[in-house]
Amino acid sequence: FILSQRYKITLHQNPDKPADIVFGNPLGSARKILSYQNTKRVFYTGENEVPNFNLFDYAIGFDELDFNNRYLRMPLYYDRLHHKAESVNDTTAPYKLKDNSLYALKKPSHHFKENHPNLCAVVNNKSDPLKRGFASFVASNPNAPKRNAFYDALNSIEPVIGGGSVRNTLGYNVKNKSEFLSQYKFNLCFENTQGYGYVTEKIIDAYFSHTIPIYWGSPSVAKDFNHKSFVNVCDFKDFNEAIDYVRYLHTHPNAYLDMLYENPLNEIDGRVYFYQDLSFKKILDFFKTILENDTIYHNNPFIFYRDLHEPLISIDDLRVNYDDLRVNYDDLRVNYDD
């Protein structure tokens, strides 16, 4: 969407065809990206990964790195904001786009309220946000022990309704996450793993659904979002203390509403802003540097290019000749009589 404002985009996955840039990440595609030997490589990930600048020329990620013009921090939540903005270009949506927004240039749809009746009602003050269920939870990855443990602890206090494949309490997976989340006062939105700057779409989904995020993940998340607008589990000494605070908000309407209506973004001199000026212009300038700079930085170790269609190592290469490892224990004997 952003690149198309300046460039004509042609997508393909053929390493034999010319390309200006190729996107990839180490999980599953590092091998494939080696096929594009004379093309500028751009690392992009939605996972908690650090870019390898020996393999990639440029990178877009979560980490707060300073690598001149070769790195741009653009967390995954920014992609979610793009899709949310597209969805509210609708005459019935409770959220309104600015008249000069690029998203408003397209013809609006007319189905948001039909698909999100509860969300529209709570945002438009047609229903009481205090008279909703306690908390919601939607997750598909079971390999997140801290998240699972917190769910179990919170659920033992008040019922937490699970709409995903993990800790599901409905008997089915919800298809409309925003509408589902809007029916509860809190949303448990833990990241799968923890890393500084690693903030995904989960907290955005909660904000969009007009519910308070109960967040765990990036210890620096308050740089991205206003700390008064969510429960940051990392701020508490343990889960029990965090749960006590959630219970306080749940039982004190004024405190709950104060947090619910806080602006999710931080402010400077009364003006809200995205951390690190994450604007369309900044993203476009980053790609302008890539496309208009002829330098290719990545290394091309010869070993990687021996044969791109064969595994780098075979089982035969790993075999050990145990005969060569035999030890003549007679030679190692110690004559203690000496």
Task: Walk me through what this model shows.
Residues 132-258 form the Fucosyltransferase C-terminal domain. One of its GO terms (cellular component) is membrane. By secondary structure, this protein is an alpha/beta fold. The chain folds into two domains: 3-74 and 279-318, Glycosyl transferase family 10, N-terminal domain (Rossmann fold, 3-Layer(aba) Sandwich); 77-273, Rossmann fold, CATH 3.40.50.11660. It contains 13 helices and eleven strands. The protein has helices spanning 26-33, 76-87, 112-115, 117-123, 145-155, 177-181, 202-208, 221-224, 239-251, 253-260, 280-292, 315-318, 329-332; strands at 21-24, 40-44, 58-61, 71-73, 133-137, 160-162, 184-190, 212-216, 231-232, 266-268, 271-273. The strands form three sheets. It has a five-stranded parallel beta sheet, sandwiched between helices. It has a four-stranded parallel beta sheet with strand order 1-2-3-4. Strand 5 (133-137), helix 5 (145-155) and strand 6 (160-162) form a beta-alpha-beta unit. Helix 2 (76-87) packs parallel to helix 7 and helix 9 (239-251) crosses helix 10 (253-260). The chain is globular, with a radius of gyration of 26 Å. 26% of the residues are buried. Residues 302-338 have low confidence and may be disordered.
